[in-house]
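Agenda item 2: guanosine-5'-diphosphate complex prediction
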Amino acid sequence: MLNLTRQMIEIRNILLNVNGATDLRLPSIVVIGSQSSGKSSVLESIVGQEFLPKGSNMVTRRPIELTLVNDPSSASEVAEFPALKMFNMTDFQQVQKVLVDLNLAVPQDEAVSADPIQLTIKSPRVPDLSLVDLPGYIQVEAADQPTTLKSKIREVCDKYLEEPNIILAISAADVDLANSSALRSARRADPRGERTIGIITKLDLVDADTARSMLLNKKYPLRMGYVGVVTKIPKSTSIFQRKSGIQAFIAQQNAERKFFKDNKELFAGTNVGTKLLKKKLIRVLERSMSGALKPMQHQVQNELEETSYKFKVEFNDRDLTCEKYMAQTIDTLKMEIKEFSEKFGRPELKSLLRSELDQKVLDLLALRYWNKSEPFLKKNPGISDYELEEPSISELNSVKSDETFWHRKLDLATANLTKIGVGRLSTTLVTDAILTEIDVLINATELRNNDMIKHAIKEAAVSVLNQRYNSTSDQVENCIKPFKYEIEVEDREWGLSRKHSLSLLNEEMKEAKEAYDVIKKTVGGNKLKQIMTYIINENNSVGQNIERENLGFSPGLLLRGREAIFLNDRLTILNMRIKSLQSSTCKHKENKFKCPEIFLDVVAEKLTQTAILFLNVELLSDFYYSFPRELEKRLGSNLTTDEIENFAKQDPKVKRHIELQERKELLELALSKIDDVMAIQKRL
Ligand code: GDP
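Presented output:
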């Protein structure tokens, strides 16, 4: 006969994964027995491996849903905990350890958890079976348990003892069946004894009559009867005692067979032996699964119709899986990067770097030229009216030797600019701008809620940029090197830079004016004038020992006053410099040392032009090419299925969409398998 049990167990396991469909259950065999009844020994002799947690204080706290798969292709027993993604385990001590850990994870005061442990064992020696080892079974009967715990344990167990499951009630032969807690519980769930198989263990410990009467039990009749086993021959009598693993079980089976053979007459007319038990379990399970299949087909059909309807109404039958969602997200990101690449190209790169260098030029000018202590400027001691003549130029014209001084000064300022580390500065600038933009991109999408993905994207960007950072920085620095020695200026360049410097200086002046006006407005024009006069007098009288009243100005006001004086000075200087740049002197590049603003602007422009060529080729274009690929690698293939699932299901709507689709697919799969099995059954 064709064994369809495995297919039905598969269907059962598929249905187990359909969320919330507790009524879609195909039967399984539920094993119950009080402590020391020999329950573990029976289960292990069916499997042929020692794998269950042992010890009197090691009470099972979670149901173990055990799927046995007969797999002729596998060399030995292989265990899997699918929910833990642990596969191909061949060390059964390790399996035992995992079970112990999973049990101990349930706090002692909770005693029991309804959340089952799923364990699959594949072997050429096991039958296709689906078994459930129930938790803390003995505790149901333990007198000293608080009633709430007892009822909780009972609740978990009762669910499994319900129809259509088959109950395997284990009782030890050396205990009166009247006291068998397994039989008592089985009777409560199955009063007519229609789906209970009685197992009597330890037949070697009782005399033949007792054993026989138990196996032919008339007092507690069960439709499927009783099976007697001897699953542990005491070691001292076993000639195979030193064997372990499967060998020990083979030895054990031989010993059991020998025992029943030796006592053949005594057990005549009874069902005994582990081998027979296995056969019986296969038969009973197959029969009851087959019986449940037709009603299940209807149930699954109904459930599928309902789910398909919801899927259509809510999601318009749009296909979505976690992987697909992730792929869509990566595509969206790639598109945004493409958009970004169109917005951030060479012109943007140029203006970014240029404005940074403009700032550096202004700082340099302030430091080296626009300084009151410099002879470049001549100050009138009045508050607001600096002389607007061009002292430097008149001075320069009159003192010949000074020419060298101003040339040197300009050379120095130029060197300052060309040697600021343009390579590093510009590469960092671009890198930072890209990373900031990536942040903006992420924060504009749903990805902002997922730290793990956010981190992965940033890491991808950083790693791509890092790979290029040093070489880009070095290349840029190398290419601007000639400017460190000589800078040739063309008339056209001079003209453009003159314009640019003027606009920069005007902008600078506007800002200083605005800042000055703000102070004036908050402090009051007259008062500000008073404070400024006071500060200037104070400064002039330093060292003259003149006592002055501070006129009651608060430290805050004095600070504002100093700021106003600074801004005022700045405005005067800027005004003067603008006039100077507008003068005919600064029209000609030959007078560059009298017009440092323009010359430094030319330098800044040359540095920028050269740097962006390399930044664009070495860094930016490469980033736009490599980043999407790196993203794909990190988010597409490097993430585990769990990580992808966590990401996708973080969005409640996506979660519902994916789960509804998963549910629909599982139901479709189950239904098609049910149809297949039923079609085969019909033909048999
Ligand atoms: P559990 O607590 O119900 O899981 O019972 P175990 O399978 O751990 O068995 C309890 C004890 O009974 C162990 O010491 C076993 O060696 C012993 N035992 C189990 N089956 C038999 C059997 O058939 N014959 C004998 N003599 N001892 C057995």
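Discussion summary: Residues 33, 35-41, 201-202, 204-205, 230-232, 234 surround guanosine-5'-diphosphate (CB under 6 Å).
Owner for follow-up: CH.
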